[in-house]
Amino acid sequence: MVKTSPHFARPAAALLLPLTLLAAPALAQPGVKEDSVVLQPDKVKDDAPVVETAAEANLPDWSKRNAEALLTAIERIGTEGLFAKDYNPDALAAAILGDDQTQLDRVATDTFLLLATHLRDGRTPNAARKQWFMVDSDSNSEPLLALLATALNAGSITETLASLNPAHPDFAALKASLAKAKAPADANAIRVNMERWRWMPRNLGERYVVSNVPEYVTRVVHGGTVIATHKAVVGKASTPTPQLNPMATGVIVNPTWTLPRSIINEGIGATIANNPARARAQGYTWTGSGKTLSVVQKAGPGNALGVMKLEMLNEHAIYLHDTPSKGAFAAAARAFSHGCIRTERALHFSGLMAVMFAGRSPEEFGEVVASGKTTRFGFDDPFPVYVAYWTIVPDGKGGVKKLADIYGRDAPVVASFAKPGRPTATIVAPKAPPVVPTVTTTARATTPGTSGIY
């Protein structure tokens, strides 16, 4: 399925809701704090490859024509944001010129699988993917050995490798910009974001929500069209929002808020101990005391989660929600939260969720909001929420624009370009070809402007 760009797609008509719901609550609560992100350790180890020895596997037979097509693809791989030398074109060229068919089969197979791994899953090792927890299922839908066998039989090495690139129009826009980049720093910044697209599933789904943290924007996509766009407030530098893709299972209107221990310790715990009447006036209820203190804030206009919370279970305690502090949405840079994503025009957002994805009528939704009662609208068909991190995005004018790297996550990816990349997902040989840092290739003369090496 071709992914439709959340930047280029035409917005659909706004959801029609009762007029009484068009205005957000006017109440504001200075310094409101929502649930804190649960900081998880980065994944520093790369996935272990599936290894089959030559004796165990039926090595594919490589014709010289197919091997030459692979070599040509490697020499031109710079246009895809990767580096030719990573795939040892000199060794492949030598195998093509030699008379040892077994050697050609081994070198060409392992070279193809390494390149295909980087095209499908990304070159960047896990250690350089800071706070990236998205689950990419492409290895299940696009197994490399099966793709290779089909490509060899059909003589479609070039087409098969090209098919592994992200299909989203935003990736195509980045690729076009890479071809025009003049400065190495600009080219590397583009490569970083091309990489991030490869870390995600190729098929984002028929419907999904995507929040781009550096852009401070959340979009709702349905049927390939952006049907809603909302400003977002994201985690500040000390409590950064991680990247993940949990499934949204429902939207909770008039939610209660169970305070995390960190926020209890920051102040409300002392208020409960010293001025319980004030704490009750702010909507807090509690059980226990000291280290066993458990605090819940009742639903209401002063609740830290506002009028809605998108239910998206994940170990990071990240979700989209409303806030009574509307003033933050007026800022250009909106990294203020404890990690969760605050959503502007939350009534519109939650109404859209309830009507389009939970099968409720606008009137029913309006009645629930007005009642003040905590109500869950479960989705008939759960869908993914992509909390992403792109620092270069389409500008809507045929080019791209650069956003602030608010958490400093680009630099580790750029640094990884000078080191060996992620290992191949599948190895068919006792030993894979070496992966080396990027240098100018010498296998054979390449067409000027196609290497993409800086």
UniProtKB/TrEMBL annotation:
* Superkingdom per UniProt: Bacteria
- The catalytic site is made up of H321, C340
Q: Name the InterPro entries on file.
A: LD-transpeptidase_YkuD-like, LD_TPept_cat_dom, LD_TPept_scaffold_dom, Transpep_catalytic_dom
Cite a single Pfam family from the UniProt record: YkuD
- Record key words, sorted: Cell shape, Cell wall biogenesis/degradation, Peptidoglycan synthesis, Signal, Transferase
- Tell me the Gene Ontology biological-process terms attached to this UniProt entry: cell wall organization; peptidoglycan biosynthetic process; regulation of cell shape
Q: In which pathway does it act?
A: Cell wall biogenesis; peptidoglycan biosynthesis
The record's similarity note reads: Belongs to the YkuD family.
The protein's name is: L,D-transpeptidase
Q: In the record, what lineage is assigned to the organism producing the protein?
A: Bacteria, Pseudomonadati, Pseudomonadota, Alphaproteobacteria, Sphingomonadales
